[in-house]
Every structure is written in C-alpha cells, then in structure tokens.
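Good morning C.,

I know you're traveling, so I'll keep this short. The sequence:
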Amino acid sequence: MIVGYFMTRNIYHQILPSIRSLLTFNRPERIYIFAEDDDIGIDLPEMVKVINISGQPYIKKSSPNWNSMFSYMVMCRVCTGKFIDDDKILLLDVDTIINDSLEDLWQTDLTGKWFGAVNEDRGKWKPYGDRYFNAGVFLMNLKQIREDRIDDVLIEMLNTHFFTYSEQCAWNKIKADRYVELPTRYNESFCCGFTNNPAVIHYAGIQDWYTNRNIQRREYLDRYLL
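The tokens, ready to paste straight into the viewer:
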C-alpha cells in the first residue's frame, strides 16, 4: 500500500493523528508527504518520505484557482503521478482518521479507471452528472492516468477555468465512466454520510476540526492526539 498526503506549512503539525491511526491498522509500504519544505520538522516513521514540491512547474500563479479558498497544494494533487513513479496511490486528506484495515480498499480493481472515491450527496447541486465524488480519500490509478495523459488535461483545466472545489471539481467534470465508486465507510463525513462501521473518518469542511471538542465522531480523533 502506498499512501500520500499533500500539506501546507500551517498544517504540518496536524498530520500525526492520521499517520498514527493509519499505522494502527495498516502496514503501508511507503507514505509520501508532499510538502512545501524538505523537512516538516516532525519525527516520522522511517517509511515516510517528505517530497518538497514548492517549486512545482505545473499549477501557475495565474490560475483562476490560485487565490481561492484552497491552496495550490490541493490543485497539485492532480500532478501526483509526475512527482513519483508508483503505479497506484491512496491520497488522504490530513483531517482523516483510519479505523480499520484499508487492504480491501487498496485491492480495488481500477483496471481501465482513473480513480476510486466515495460519492457525495449534493442534493440538487449536480454540476457534473448524478455522481459527485469527494477527493478526501482518493485511490488513484497513476499508471492509467499517465497512459491517458489525463493529468495534463486536468492541469490545463485548473490553469484556465475556475472551479468551486478546485481539483475535486476538475476530476468530477472529466470523470466520464473512468471511476470506481467506493463504499461510504471509506470516507465517512457530513459530505458522504455515516455508517456503523467506519474505516475512514473524514472531518471534511470543518476548519477547526483539530481543536473543536464538539464535532461529530471526535472520539476517533482523541485516540491519536498526544
């Protein structure tokens, strides 16, 4: 299993609960932290590799999404296959807590597909068809993405068109039938819904998720805070 996180400096300190919970239930071969520095200043397990992508040439400051509510690091997730050589990766948002083995998720058959993700219930807001996927837990078929050069298409889209939710919307706009819909338990959040058997708890859209004592399912986060 290969896992990745994209992080700006202001949230480096928030990564440990997610990594601790991941390693409680899983033994990933490698964890990438795509960051703005060579060293994020935190003691990390030896399988964690920090990659400084602050000088990336793909997402331009002229992008209409550059000064949106999401940082350029979020947009850079479409470039994942340009930063590493792996054929597959599970991208996780920093505000996720793992509560089970993700091996079945990792073994999802993505043959001919670009990604696997959990569908959001967006009500009447359906800008890109009946399915709108949340990218907070995003299983990427990097081999297929490279073969189809779809990352170049997404980079061009993000550099020329504004999207409400940055790369997440870009993926949803271009997805066609090149995705696998994952069970809700792999991205439990107010966006995607809740079950009685969560594998990934995602505090999506909650800006103070790390300090808010009253958020739903806070007990899962508390287990991994020091």
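Safe travels,
E.
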